User: Which sequence fits this backbone?
């Protein structure tokens, strides 16, 4: 079936498109994000394709012991090892990704002690453990965005449900939920994260869960207000008189009203989520050591002031990412502004 | 005769590419009353607002024309000059007295502000003049009223305060933009009377903007009739009313709800029976102290027969809408409600939802009662999806088309969205949404009061036809007594939540018993 948008949605989209700054930001951001999703094909310490002895090998996807290529060990082939490279080239060829480093690949062949300056081999230099900064940047960007997206998505769903229930039913439900939220939002999040960090090894999902415990509240008050307002609309009453079930009315008639406010807020919530993850990593309470992260790169930049490429790279990438999101968010906000876009 | 006080020549007003006013001409002399009449969107308010240059410039522009006030062209006047004229020589009162007064200021401060600005009054001088003005507009307790805030006043009192503000500087021209539309009939009559007396007393010119021809008839010496930004007819009220030339004027004058409904079958079964219905709202609730209640509907009993129209009349706040919502079980109430002899007052959500298709409602405002995000077909078909989920898509589509035809709308328009329709068409859509479920009782909550006069008559006729065709029972709520007379068999007059009088329509209209009913009818028919 053909997807049909309401004329209002179409107008909003047109208004958004007409805002060239926001529209370009969206394209730049989407391009960067999609590229970073394929980080393994851009920055990796394994070749993309190997043709050896007239058969094709895909090391990015599959484990091949060194013996496959005429080596001595049963461990995975180290494709960066000149010995293995020689073996493969002798009986075939291989295609490397543009950057021959993964986020955790250590370049032992540095011209100066790590952190070393940018050169043709490491375009943005290496960090203090000899790892390629550009590769770490690509992977770190991906993790930040994905973390932000997942956190925003789940916390928005929870927030919309809680706010919707509060606003639609009102009365006692609303009163009790509001008090719980007030108490819950008074808990010191950072300390909790630090305490939890000492109890468990924080990984991506642990951090996500912990932050989710608190981030769902940001949308509740907004959605609650929209539901409170909309439940007295005539067309909502008409739906009630038609005999629609509570769920039907909430979902079909009231929710679309609240979605405007929610969508307007989403880019900013996403921004907040990314910033939080970055700052936790910076403080050392975030992702496990060794994982690519913009916050950790910032911390390295602070600790290695003599290697400005670390701090500058981290600063510029975080600043650009947040700026792009803010510009997109601005465009979305204007497009949803009822004073600017009318039916 | 000397120079006219206000003279508008070939005035054009343009918003972007849209011409809101296209070449309007009229003259207004000292001490004269002129009415500017037209339906919504005819450009009458825009014309009035451009006299004081109160339009949102620069979106609005005057490509042509001039507005001469005492010989001075106001369109060329500087902002400073205009500020001097506004509120001093030309004053304006607006339709909605609720929003045109600042809720944070007392009556004294609001009126006093005008005096400080234009007359540079000080201290006790202001107070004296404010008391004088309040007396002039009919406050008997002017001293106590000085410290009142707008929310402590009734609608009529607020409009009086607005008039006092407008008159504070004794302007030579008063522009009144629908000054009584938001008020109840009895208050409306009082305010108009007041305006008339004050105008004579102060010898000012009055430019009255209205859509209500009975007001024009009573108040204005001259009348200008506007349609789609053009002035279609102008002249002395008497001669225009007696001998209208333009077809539009004739249509306006004929657009009075007339006729009667078909005789009611006296043996028809009673379909809805309400006994001792009461609705109360919690006004104040605090922990540990007894709750305070406000009784919106007090102990109301009524019976409706199949095919009958029950008219419920009352001023705003009389509880008529609350009563209707209680009958539909959209509002918690006490008392008994029997639908076709079966009690429905105790039913819980699920069993109630199954009955909902028998009781439908059409709301007052056709703009807010249709979801802007759904197409017409989706809006009308929603009830089908809920009550007849077994119907195929094609069957639903067929029923939707049929119901659109029934309300005389083109079925081809069903994929459009509500904003593409006019007010009258939207109201037809709302009626189609209710009718597709084949209800037995249709509650009509002021279904015509948001519509223009000519459209009102059309909708009313449609409703009458549908009633005969489907043996529908109507509960028709309105504050407009003429409409009620044209459609109901039975009338209930409500005041402050109770029924003050009820009976067959012709009996009540010919011989009202209760003093309140008498006052209501007097205000409505002798205007």
Assistant:
């Amino acid at each position: 079936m053909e997807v049909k948008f309401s004329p209002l949605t179409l107008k909003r989209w047109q208004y958004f498109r007409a805002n060239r700054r926001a529209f370009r930001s969206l394209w730049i951001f989407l391009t960067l994000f999609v590229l970073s999703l394929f980080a393994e094909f851009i920055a990796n310490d394994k070749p993309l394709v190997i043709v050896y002895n007239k058969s094709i090998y895909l090391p990015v996807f599959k484990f091949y012991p060194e013996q496959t290529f005429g080596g001595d060990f049963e461990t995975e082939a180290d494709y960066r090892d000149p010995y293995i490279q020689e073996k493969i080239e002798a009986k075939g060829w291989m295609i490397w990704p543009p950057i021959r480093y993964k986020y955790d690949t250590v370049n032992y062949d540095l011209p100066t002690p790590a952190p070393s300056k940018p050169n043709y081999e490491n375009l943005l230099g290496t960090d203090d453990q000899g790892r390629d900064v550009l590769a770490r940047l690509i992977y770190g960007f991906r993790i930040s965005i994905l973390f932000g997206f997942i956190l925003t998505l789940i916390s928005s769903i929870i927030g919309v449900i809680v706010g919707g229930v509060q606003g639609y039913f009102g009365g006692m439900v609303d009163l009790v939920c509001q008090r719980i939220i007030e108490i819950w939002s008074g808990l010191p999040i950072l300390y909790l994260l630090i305490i939890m960090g000492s109890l468990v090894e924080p990984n991506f999902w642990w951090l996500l869960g912990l932050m989710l415990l608190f981030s769902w509240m940001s949308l509740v008050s907004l959605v609650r207000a929209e539901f409170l307002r909309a439940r007295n609309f005539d067309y909502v009453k008409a739906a009630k008189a038609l005999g629609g079930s509570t769920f039907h009315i909430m979902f079909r008639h009231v929710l679309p009203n609240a979605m405007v406010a929610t969508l307007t807020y989403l880019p900013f919530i996403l921004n907040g989520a990314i910033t939080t993850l970055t700052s936790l990593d910076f403080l050392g309470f975030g992702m496990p050591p060794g994982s690519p992260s913009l916050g950790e790169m910032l911390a390295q930049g602070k600790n290695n002031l003599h290697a400005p490429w670390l701090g500058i790279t981290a600063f510029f990438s975080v600043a650009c990412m947040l700026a792009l999101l803010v510009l997109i968010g601005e465009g979305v906000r204007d497009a949803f502004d009822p004073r600017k876009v009318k039916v | 005769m000397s120079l006219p006080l206000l003279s508008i020549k070939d005035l054009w007003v343009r918003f972007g590419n849209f011409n809101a006013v296209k070449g309007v001409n009229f003259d207004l002399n000292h001490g004269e009353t002129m009415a500017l009449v037209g339906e919504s969107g005819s450009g009458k308010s825009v014309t009035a607002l451009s006299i004081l240059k109160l339009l949102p410039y620069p979106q609005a522009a005057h490509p042509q024309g001039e507005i001469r006030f005492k010989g001075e062209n106001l369109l060329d006047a500087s902002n400073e000059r205009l500020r001097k004229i506004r509120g001093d020589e030309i004053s304006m009162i607006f339709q909605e007295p609720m929003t045109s007064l600042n809720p944070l200021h007392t009556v004294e401060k609001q009126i006093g502000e005008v005096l400080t600005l234009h007359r540079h009054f000080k201290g006790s001088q202001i107070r004296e003049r404010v008391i004088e003005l309040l007396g002039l507009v009919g406050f008997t307790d002017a001293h106590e009223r000085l410290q009142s805030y707008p929310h402590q006043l009734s609608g009529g009192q607020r409009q009086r305060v607005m008039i006092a503000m407008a008159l504070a500087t004794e302007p030579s021209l008063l522009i009144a933009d629908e000054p009584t539309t938001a008020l109840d009939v009895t208050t409306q009559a009082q305010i108009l009377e007041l305006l008339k007396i004050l105008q004579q007393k102060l010898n000012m010119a009055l430019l009255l903007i209205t859509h209500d021809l009975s007001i024009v008839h009573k108040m204005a010496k001259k009348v200008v009739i506007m349609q789609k930004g053009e002035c279609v007819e102008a002249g002395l009220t008497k001669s225009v009313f007696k001998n209208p030339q333009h077809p539009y004027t004739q249509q306006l004058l004929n657009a009075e709800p007339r006729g009667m409904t078909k005789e009611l079958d006296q043996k028809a079964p009673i379909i809805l029976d309400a006994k001792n219905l009461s609705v109360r709202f919690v006004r104040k609730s605090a922990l540990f102290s007894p709750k305070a209640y406000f009784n919106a509907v007090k102990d109301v009993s009524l019976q409706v027969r199949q095919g009958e129209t029950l008219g419920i009349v009352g001023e705003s706040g009389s509880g008529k809408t609350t009563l209707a919502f209680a009958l539909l079980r959209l509002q918690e109430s006490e008392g008994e409600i029997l639908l076709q002899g079966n009690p429905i007052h105790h039913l819980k959500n699920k069993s109630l939802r199954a009955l909902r298709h028998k009781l439908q409602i059409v709301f007052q405002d056709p703009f807010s009662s249709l979801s802007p995000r759904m197409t017409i077909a989706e809006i009308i078909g929603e009830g089908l999806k809920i009550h007849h989920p077994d119907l195929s898509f094609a069957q639903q589509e067929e029923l939707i088309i049929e119901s659109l035809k029934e309300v005389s709308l083109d079925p081809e328009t069903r994929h459009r969205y509500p904003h593409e329709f006019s007010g009258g068409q939207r109201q037809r859509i709302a009626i189609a949404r209710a009718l597709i479920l084949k209800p037995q009782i249709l509650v009509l909550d002021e279904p015509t009061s948001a519509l223009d006069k000519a459209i009102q008559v059309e909708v009313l006729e449609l409703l009458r036809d549908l009633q005969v065709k489907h043996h529908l029972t109507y509960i028709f709520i309105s504050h407009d007594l003429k409409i009620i007379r044209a459609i109901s068999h039975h009338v209930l007059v409500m005041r402050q939540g109770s029924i003050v009088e009820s009976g067959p329509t012709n009996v009540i209209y010919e011989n009202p018993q209760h003093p309140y009913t008498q006052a209501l009818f007097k205000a409505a028919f002798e205007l």
Notes: The longest strand of chain A covers residues 49-52. Chain A touches chain B through 21 residues (CB under 8 Å). The first helix of chain A runs from residue 7 to 18.
